[in-house]
Amino acid sequence: MPGGPTLIGSVVRALSLLEAVAEHGRPVQAKALARLTDIPLPTTYHLLRTLVHEGYLVRTAEGYVVGDLPAHLASAGEEGSGALRARRVLRTLHEDLRAATYLAVLSDGEIELADIVDSPAAPRTDLWVGLHDAAHATALGKAIIGALPDDSRRDYLARHPMVDLTPRTHTDVRALLAELEDDPGVVVDSQEYALGTGCVAVPFQGPGVLGAVAVSVPAERLPKVLGEVHRLTRAASRVALAWAGPARAEDLAEA
Question: Looking at the domain that runs over 71-254, which CATH code has it been given?
Answer without folding.
Answer: 3.30.450.40
